[in-house]
Amino acid sequence: MLTIQKFAKLAGTTRRTLIFYDEKDLFKPKEVATNGYRYYDYDQLYEATFILELRQLGLSISEIKTLNSAVDSHTLNENLKDVLAKINTQMDNLNILRATLNTRFNQPAEVTDSVRNQPFVETAPAALFCRSRQSVACTEEEIAEIYADFYERLGKLKLVNKQDSGFRTQLPNSDANRYPDASFCILKAVTATTDTGDLPRLEKPAGDYVSINTTNDTKHICIGLRILAEYIAKNHIQINDHLWQMNLDENFTSKGASNLVRLQYQIQAQ
């Protein structure tokens, strides 16, 4: 017979764990001496190891008891099917997390240039986005509701993958006066193979964009839009009607956007 300390070492666990299992009627010692000392048999090692592995997989005490109570192979197989389903779910979740982290670490470095309110022209590749429903009232409450619904359906883990995110707003002519009430949708970059459920997708076309970086609040965005409008008029640039407001870091501070944002209009060929 083995003392509890020696059996715990052999099984790769602790004395405290064995006492806990005994108290929960999950795994009992072979004998208990009159002085209360617990003693175990070598033959109990298989059962102990099985229980410890199931606990490592996250099964509860009650779930393991159900497995141990199986009276025949059929019952045990049925119970193990439930265990397999749980393991498969855990593996699916871990695969999603792994893919999310791999995506995060493969993203280009964040923009560190904090120069604001200076228009410039940049060439951007095509990008694929998943989009939320279109806004109606443009209130803070509606923005919060759309944001919560969008990431609930897309998957909250997408928040940490560092892929591009932002808004697309219907705002012709970089019109700052119309910005506070302009209809928008939330955007999150995805790949062609990303499972987005029934959320619609849209493509941001490749091409030249007239852009400006600014602080994310209504006052500064409107200032940025006015500066952008002046630059567009001065340089006789033709733009389309969609304002792309892209987050420049992953720390959202207000209304589902980062503190520093980039306002962009695609330049139309003349």
UniProtKB/TrEMBL annotation:
Signal peptide: none annotated. SUPFAM superfamilies: Putative DNA-binding domain (SSF46955). Residues 1-70 form the HTH merR-type domain. Keywords: DNA-binding, Repressor, Transcription, Transcription regulation. Pfam families: MerR_1. It comes from the Bacteria. SMART domains: HTH_MERR (SM00422). This is MerR family transcriptional regulator. It comes from Levilactobacillus fuyuanensis.
